[in-house]
Amino acid sequence: MSYLQNKVQSFNANLGSVAGKISNKRTVAPPPKPTASPTPSAASDTSKNELKRKRADLPHVPFSQPADTGVGQHIMTQVTYAIEHLKKRDEPQTFAAILEYLSMQTREDSYKNALEKILIKHEKVNYEPKREGHPAVFSFRP
Q1: What are the tens digits of pLDDT across the range 24-76?
Q2: How far is 68 from 60, CA to CA, in rounded Å?
Q3: What is the per-residue pLDDT for 15?
């Protein structure tokens, strides 16, 4: 006989001797005794309702939608987009061209002024003030 066949036979012999020691008795709960009630009563309906787990009424929230729908509307996000735009363009851009790229022409003036001040002071933006016959322009500073 081969080595593997000897191992299989010894395993089967050990399995047979151990099988008698293991108990396979399963305990099953006795079925509930049915109560004889010819007609359902209102009391039994309320007891069923009381046994049910109560869930809090939560509003239906679709999980596929983000909770913050104002993404991209914060001023520092707009600054980042503006700097990326300046980086892609080789020529200086006016502030009006930047606002047009960001689709912010209709925003309130205070928001536009704040964005312009941030861009003027930003370390990655080169600001050239208005000169004779030339508008103020922004460019990317590597």
Answers
A1: 666 677 777 777 665 555 555 566 666 777 777 777 766 665 555 655 668 89
A2: 16
A3: 75
Which residues does 61 contact at the CB level (< 8 Å), separation at least 6?
A: none
Which token pair is 71?
Answer: 């993404």
Q: How far apart are CA 95 and CA 112, in angstroms?
A: 9
Q: Are 79 and 122 in contact (CB under 8 A)?
A: yes
Residue type for position 54: K
- Closest C-alpha to 138, from 98, 81, 106: 98
Rounded Cα gap, residues 51 and 100, in angstroms: 62
pTM: 0.50
Residue 137 β-bridge partners: 94, 128
Residue 41: both structure tokens together = 């009563």
